[in-house]
Specification:
139 residues; mainly alpha; Cytochrome Bc1 Complex, Chain D, domain 2; 6 helices
């Protein structure tokens, strides 16, 4: 009986871990957050890519509907090109172009993540990192 209970609890635990990694935020955390942090950076020099709040600020400034933004994100992540970028040139010079995520994300995962970041970023009170200065994706 004890072995059965341990096995059942193990299955429930593993199932919850799998669910967490397939939720939209779980997918983002697994696939994107190593580069695009979700919070305002404390040490900007440690950034390897613009924080997602700044990226999404510029995506939403460029694409007025969720459908357009999600389509852009889905296409750009798989085939990043400077001509398609919504960041200012100085951000691309600093961070480089995002590497293509072909093979790292399925279309379904990417669509799930794109909708989630659209719905959650930037925060309502976000005004940019350098208020009053010309803004780029890191802002």
């Amino acid at each position: 009986m004890k072995t059965l209970l341990i096995s059942l609890l193990s299955i429930i635990f593993l199932s919850s871990l799998l669910q967490a990694n397939t939720s939209a935020e779980g997918l983002y955390d697994t696939k994107c957050s190593a580069c695009h942090i979700k919070t305002r950076p404390v040490v900007k020099s440690a950034l390897v890519a613009p924080p997602i709040m700044g990226v999404m600020r510029h995506v939403k400034m460029t694409y007025k509907t969720k459908e357009e933004a999600v389509k852009f994100i889905s296409e750009y992540v798989m085939d990043p090109q400077k001509a398609k970028a919504v960041c200012m040139d100085n951000k691309i010079e600093r961070f480089g172009l995002m590497p293509s995520q072909k093979g790292n994300l399925t279309d379904e995962e990417l669509h799930t993540i794109a909708e989630w970041i659209y719905d959650n970023f930037p925060p309502v009170d976000f005004t940019g990192m350098n208020e009053g200065k010309k803004k780029g994706c890191g802002n």
